[in-house]
């Protein structure tokens, strides 16, 4: 007879492949992110539908906190795709945003939308040339850095891991070489758009790639170190980051490249662009 502690196969996530000992993604934030979610649980016109482990959600959440907007955070199980998510995004991806009757998705688009509301501190600079530069380096992050993060994490062969580690290091170096020389943030003393685009991956280099792949600490005294510490110390970043264990557990499926992990994982394995 099954004991009360037995987990039925129906309760398991697809990525666990019927094995309850496999770690899976968390379904609620922990630590400071849990506190922030609690204090934004009340019904509001502006709602962020997110999943606590997701770096794309993290971008939008940091933006909302930075701007101190009046918003509601709604945690969704993105792999079980509730109707309220599909109603906004038929592709079933988080983040999704609802503002009154209107809804939209795609993390970069949502960050631009929050800018256009013109409430709270701006993330995009005023100067058109600096705005273009912000978009240019955001594109670099989306096109070059993020896919390599997943290639590196999902690679099972040591030779592939080494190759992707070098590629990722080089693409980050290209980004850092475009940063304001003094910093500490990408464009100078304040956090701006490019910082928020990159922040969730800076957090996950430390909390995911370091334990699973030995990603190194930034070189002491380097411009990269200065940037990493500024991001890690930012209040909006800290308020939306969960405890370390959440990232360890939620990303084990990527580090083992387990089947049925996510659309991101499938795109990387299939040599396609990210969703
Ligand atoms: N390009 C999208 C990517 C969003 C994305 O991939 N989100 C993941 C979670 S981190 C997701 O919703 N996955 C659902 C699935 O794989 O079915 C964005 O920038 O918002």
TrEMBL record:
InterPro entries: Glutathione-S-Trfase_C-like (IPR010987), Glutathione-S-Trfase_C_sf (IPR036282), Glutathione_S-Trfase (IPR040079), Glutathione_S-Trfase_N (IPR004045), GST_C_5 (IPR041695), GST_omega (IPR005442), GST_Omega/HSP26 (IPR050983), Thioredoxin-like_sf (IPR036249)
Start and end residues of each GST N-terminal domain: 44-122
Pfam families named among the record's database cross-references: GST_C_5, GST_N_3
Annotated region described as Disordered, given as residue ranges: 1-31
Record GO terms (molecular function): glutathione dehydrogenase (ascorbate) activity; glutathione transferase activity
Keywords: Oxidoreductase
Domain GST C-terminal: residue ranges: 127-250
Amino acid composition bias (Polar residues), ranges on this chain: 1-13
A GO term from the CC aspect: cytoplasm
Superkingdom per UniProt: Eukaryota
Entry protein name: Glutathione S-transferase
